[in-house]
Design brief:
heterodimer; A: alpha+beta; Rossmann fold; OB fold (Dihydrolipoamide Acetyltransferase, E2P); six-stranded antiparallel sheet; disordered C terminus; B: mainly alpha; MetI-like fold; 2 strands; 77% helix; cell inner membrane (chain B); transmembrane (chain B); membrane (chain B)
Chain lengths: 357, 263
């Protein structure tokens, strides 16, 4: 069974407050779609509209070909995993996993096998007879995933599933989820997160949400390498966003002409130049920018330098061999033309500097 | 731990005992002492005897104890079902406060009024309950439902909706969610409420005295009758039997609660 998810102009409002504004989005069968955005961007509301916990004021939600907008949650046939696990504390692990099967009246003799299979898939077989409170956070989340997968849903909804885990465990679980997705190629996943790393690692496509609206949607590579808006550039990865003016053969930034493909932008138009910190090198080179070091952080493999270039803050992640330049030193930075992306200037408040996603 | 030094802790304990002993313990000790006495003219009772207990654990008195137990069990069960039902139904709606106040009303008026109103309401066919044990149970339930309702709605407010949502997303309909998830998670509060309702009902007198039929005499009525005719010492023995029974039942209920909490 392959099923996708389709939002057709879905709006959700709580007492006049629009928290999701006419969302149009299709998750293809078997695809992992990450809903990425800051808190309050409407991403969790979108997921809850699929699960059936919020009712849209307008628009329709489809799972596969089925319009589920008016169906109660228990008739929708989705699996769901939430941040706080929500394992039933009064049931042992195996009873938790069997809950969905019993609720859907699966044949009795098959339940034990399906429970064992789901626990096996998440590596929790050894813990079947434990109570949830006897497990660590990561183990509880594995059980929650096993519980959702045991009913073999066509659609798996994950609402910030890793947020309650510590950093180390999070990256392990991320790899685990990626493996699960390979093992279950038919299951569509809608993955809500505010963590760009999770989205970039796991998702086939990322839907970027901000202020109740869908801002951008594309593959991780697409959004990262060729962002179309300042918001995308700053929220997916880290970006230097520099205000520039388009000239005939490049752009003008702080008096210097930079060799950047201007594309279709008209000469004289204001624009924003997006350069990733790791694409900027220290020393002379093409597209040189001169400025004073205002901040330096040692990050192990790299240094993060913040350089004041004609009043604009430019962030660069440079390799260790160069050593840390003392604060206040005049340095030269450079970047290759192909690492820069020219964005249309934002309508309002286009400022210089780096935005950290 | 609010108080750290050992001496300060002792001082706090001493103050607590100074408050607790005269207010709570002493009256019960007096009753216990009186239940063993034949006369009480000096500071302490005298003429130690077990005769009152012999009377209090046989014949009429045992019937009255059984009556009290059955009444309290039925009334707290009824109160628990009604209170829980109302709490579940009114959850998250404006009706909640109104329902809470309605249940509280019988507690706010003298219990005699509750007895009287039930008597008036159920004295004519087709609602003829006057003179039956049912009307006693009903009165007790009316008086204690507020406590059950309060306890359960407070617990419902604290219950994370993620549990019922997880259950619903797994395909469980509302009935299964209620029976397999919500009620089990509410169990500690339910058993606490049950204990409170049971204790209140075991000691109820004012409304009962308006309503009880001759074949359904709860123990508090016996205690009152004994003291009323001047038999203070046998009344005290009956009271001790009532207290000990109530205490034992509450102990059993609290064991259910601790087991539920530890799961």
């Amino acid at each position: 069974m392959t099923t996708g998810i389709r939002f057709d102009g879905v709006s959700v409002a709580y007492g006049g407050d629009v928290v999701l504004d006419s969302l149009d989005l299709t998750v293809e069968p078997g695809e992992v779609m990450a809903l990425l955005g800051p808190s309050g961007s409407g991403k969790t509301t979108a997921l809850r509209a699929v699960a059936g916990f919020v009712r849209p004021v307008s628009g329709r939600v489809f799972i596969g070909d089925r319009d589920v907008t008016d169906l109660p949650p228990h008739r929708r046939g989705v699996g769901m995993v939430v941040q706080q696990y929500a394992l039933f504390p009064h049931m042992r692990v195996d009873a938790n996993v069997a809950f969905g099967l019993k609720a859907r009246r699966a044949p009795k003799d098959g339940i034990a096998a399906r429970v064992a299979e789901a626990l096996e898939m998440t590596g929790m077989s050894a813990y079947a007879r434990r109570y949830p409170r006897e497990l660590s956070g990561g183990q509880q989340q594995r059980v929650a995933i096993a519980r959702a997968l045991a009913v073999r849903p066509g659609v798996l909804l994950l609402d910030e599933p890793l947020s309650a885990l510590d950093a180390r465990l999070r990256s392990d679980m991320l790899a685990e989820l990626a493996r699960l997705h390979r093992d279950l190629p038919d299951v569509s996943m809608l993955y809500v997160t505010h963590d760009q790393m999770e989205a970039l690692t796991l998702a086939d496509r990322i839907a970027l949400m901000d202020r109740s609206r869908l801002q951008d949607c594309g593959t991780p590579q697409d959004l990262y390498r060729r962002p179309r808006t300042e918001f995308t550039a700053s929220f997916v990865g880290t970006a230097n966003l520099l205000p520039v003016t388009v000239t005939g053969d490049g752009v003008r930034f702080a008096g210097a002409v930079l060799d950047v493909p201007a594309g279709t932008a008209a000469p004289g138009a204001p624009a924003t130049l997006c350069v990733r910190p790791h694409a900027i090198g220290l020393g002379e080179g093409p597209n040189a920018l001169r400025g004073k070091v205002t901040e330096a952080q040692w990050r192990g493999a790299t240094h993060r330098l913040c350089v004041d270039v004609a009043g604009h803050r430019v962030t660069a992640d440079v390799g260790e061999p160069h050593g840390t330049p003392p604060l206040g030193t005049e340095v030269t930075l450079h970047f290759a033309a192909r690492d820069a992306v020219l964005l249309p200037a934002a309508a309002a408040g286009a400022g210089g500097g780096a935005a950290h996603g | 731990m609010l108080v750290h030094s050992r001496r300060a802790r002792r001082a706090v304990h001493a103050v607590f005992l100074a408050l607790f002993l005269p207010v709570f313990a002493l009256p019960f000790l007096v009753v216990a002492a009186a239940s063993l006495a034949t006369r009480w003219s000096g500071i302490l009772p005298a003429g130690v005897t077990l005769d009152h207990y012999r009377a209090a654990t046989g014949g009429d008195a045992i019937d009255a104890l059984t009556t009290s137990l059955l009444t309290a069990l039925a009334a707290s069960a009824l109160a628990l079902v009604t209170g829980t039902w109302a709490a579940l139904a009114a959850k998250g709606s404006r009706a909640r406060r109104v329902v809470g106040l309605l249940f509280m009303l019988p507690v706010a008026v003298p219990s005699v009024v509750v007895g009287l109103s039930l008597l008036v309401a159920f004295s004519r066919p087709p609602l003829l309950l006057n003179g039956t044990s049912t009307i006693v149970v009903l009165a007790h339930a009316v008086l204690v439902t507020s406590f059950a309702h309060q306890a359960v709605s407070a617990a419902l407010d604290r219950l994370d909706p993620a549990y019922e949502q997880a259950a619903a997303s797994l395909g469980a309909g509302p009935v299964r969610v209620l029976l397999r998830v919500r009620l089990p998670l509410l169990l500690p509060s339910l058993s606490a409420a049950a204990g409170l309702c049971f204790a209140l009902s075991m000691g109820e007198l004012s409304a009962t005295i308006m309503l009880y039929p001759p074949d359904w005499v709860p123990l508090p009525v016996k205690v009152f009758a004994a003291t009323d005719r001047g038999a203070l010492f046998s009344g005290a023995a009956l009271a001790v039997v009532l207290m000990v029974t109530t205490f034992l039942v509450l102990l059993a209920v609290s064991r259910i609660r601790t087991r539920a909490v530890h799961r």
